[in-house]
């Protein structure tokens, strides 16, 4: 209760995601058929959700689905302990805090065996006397780029096939466990779950490595990245042509700039006659009795 009270006093809406070690729904969030009473923690969380207008996002989207996030090897049943709460609003921000382990592995590095073999094979058939060194260098870069792309695609395809196969196998094992809670099915799920977690961690690591962290690291420093970004923004804002007042289309930069200059000069210039406007203002003020001290 104190936690939700402190949460409600924050200056902006927050969303908390975490393992509360508590099943909110004793029927839908537990695989066991044994009826149990709702815990005091679950009652407190549900009461706070009603009081502060919170909702469990996943349960709201899947009201009749049974999915579990924890398997108890002691009690031999599964339960859903992870909840993602948010305010009932279309403008509520979402924040998820992730804690990574300290012993992180380094990024993937390609082995040089296949690259060395490709380099030797290329220079075996391409010599400097028949072609110029510049042409050989450009052809070599294109060849190595193709080898790296082919190697990356093969590794990605192999990883995706393994991921899909393991997901299907684990899903089938969990389905059999839901139907028959036997020791054999529990052991099969327990053996497949670590492999699935390891592959998911590898996939998440690859996704994190592909984020645009270099934009934050380099910031507004002068370099190729900033020049490339400005070049793209300039190309997006470029006006290639304009239709002139006479109906013709011009592609000349001088004509485009002149057309914009004439348009905005006419737009922001005074359209009224100064003498007639001054006379009307004087005649209007003469007919008004202005009190004076």
TrEMBL record:
Spell out the InterPro entries in the cross-references: Endo/exonu/phosph_ase_sf (IPR036691)
Gene3D superfamilies (UniProt xref): Endonuclease/exonuclease/phosphatase (3.60.10.10)
The lineage's top-level taxon is Eukaryota
Q: What is the organism field in this record?
A: Latimeria chalumnae
Q: How is this protein named in the record?
A: Endonuclease/exonuclease/phosphatase domain-containing protein
